[in-house]
């Protein structure tokens, strides 16, 4: 269990919510980590969510924020900025994301991050019974109810993905 005792796993356990651990062989050459995880685990990609660390500019809370969106979706940076009450947002550079979260890219979880960030879960998860998020290391995923993720990550709901046409 020592290898699975990531800060993310400890955070979900401390929150007292139900979860399952899923492991797969991480592919460092995958173009889309979340989609590769879904394929490796034989899961519907719509259930797998990626964690993005973003920089916020202007407004009362400049700094960093965490966005959790479907693996196949694109983050709406303007919507994230609005949800975080900032003037602008952009993806944080890899080194900043890794330093802030305490995780390496490909293993960044919305749970148990080194530094507590304002965290936003895309509303698309509301309709799902369970979603999959990174478990805090490459090749480890956590499956849990979206409402439990909101509780464990002290997150809030937001419409933060780019909407596709009709």
Would you tell me the structural class of the helices and strands?
alpha/beta
CATH class, named Alpha Beta
CATH superfamily: YbaK/aminoacyl-tRNA synthetase-associated domain
Strand tally is: 8
Helix-strand sequence: HEHEEHEHEEEHE
Oligomer: single chain
Percent helix range: 10-25%
Major sheet attributes? 5 strands, mixed
In the CATH scheme, what's the topology name? YbaK protein
Instruction: Count up the helices.
Output: 5
Shape: globular
The Cα radius of gyration reads: 15 Å
Uncertain stretches of 5 or more adjacent residues: none
Let me know the average pLDDT. 92
CATH architecture: Alpha-Beta Complex
**What is the number of independent domains?**
1
Strand content: 25-35%
Lateral strand order in the biggest sheet: 4-2-3-5-8
Distance between the termini: 46 Å
